[in-house]
Specification:
mainly alpha
Amino acid sequence: MSSTEIRFNRPDISESDRAFLAEAIAGGHSSGNGVFTRRTEAALQQSLG
């Protein structure tokens, strides 16, 4: 039997998640059409053409 613990009702927040949150908060934009939207659009455009 595996000893892996599954933590229910607890978010798994990594250090990179924390960094992205801090960047979004510092940018003062907390909804769509911000810097992360533009980055995602650019990545999709490059990937999909």
